[in-house]
Write a structure and sequence with these properties.
Radius of gyration: 18 Å
Strand order of the largest sheet: 1-2-3-4
Number of strands: 12
Oligomer: single chain
Distance between the termini: 12 Å
Order of helices and strands: EEEEEEEEEEEE
Length: about 200
């Protein structure tokens, strides 16, 4: 919309992608970097990621002002995070939350008040523990927080809790989308579009 009006712009019907090639290469024992989760905080891109470090899933973090500086950014190990991190700022509690997988729980989370400091994160907490789950995402409206994930079984699952209880433990789940395993498998993302 323009000028603060309630008007919205329609989503495009087609997309065209371009690529710069790799923005960063693994350093210091890392074999691969993947599952990037990016937020902008204090004019810095804060990127959490996972990948293969010495044959194990591991988590890491880097911060830089602009994408052309990602290649030279310091890559910090995040021992508490294992795979597929999702970083978000939870405004109601003024808390940074990083959600990830492949721990003692299906999904775990850690909290911080400063995402630029790798040592500032809390001990891990349970977010959801059920059947195998991968590639989670959380989205909230004014009353409810929703956890979405896939399971490599052709389904997307959802669990919910009142916003006042988040972060906490999601319990029961329901299937919200299903298809063949070739069509629906990993990396679901859920967004809200302003004005809709």
């Amino acid at each position: 919309g323009q000028g603060g009006s309630a008007a919205t712009c329609p989503l495009p019907k087609t997309f065209k992608w371009t690529s710069t090639g790799p923005l960063a290469q693994p350093k210091a024992g890392w074999v691969s970097l993947k599952n990037f989760s990016d937020v902008v905080f204090n004019n810095l891109h804060i990127v959490y990621y996972s990948g293969d470090k010495n044959g194990n899933w591991a988590g890491g973090m880097m911060a830089f002002p602009d994408w052309d500086q990602m290649a030279t950014a310091t890559q910090y190990d995040m021992p508490v995070i294992s795979a597929a991190p999702t970083i978000l700022y939870f405004r109601p509690k003024k808390l940074w939350i990083d959600i990830y997988q492949y721990t003692q729980f299906t999904f775990s989370y850690v909290t911080s008040t400063d995402p630029t400091k790798p040592s500032s994160w809390s001990a891990p907490h349970e977010l959801y523990n059920g059947s195998h789950g991968i590639d989670n995402t959380v989205i909230c409206n004014s009353t409810t927080c929703y956890l979405f994930w896939t399971n490599d079984d052709g389904k997307i699952y959802r669990s919910s809790m009142p916003i006042d209880n988040f972060p906490g433990v999601f319990t029961t789940s329901t299937v919200v989308m299903s298809d063949t395993t070739a069509n629906l498998f990993e990396a679901e993302q859920v967004y809200s579009i302003a004005g809709t």
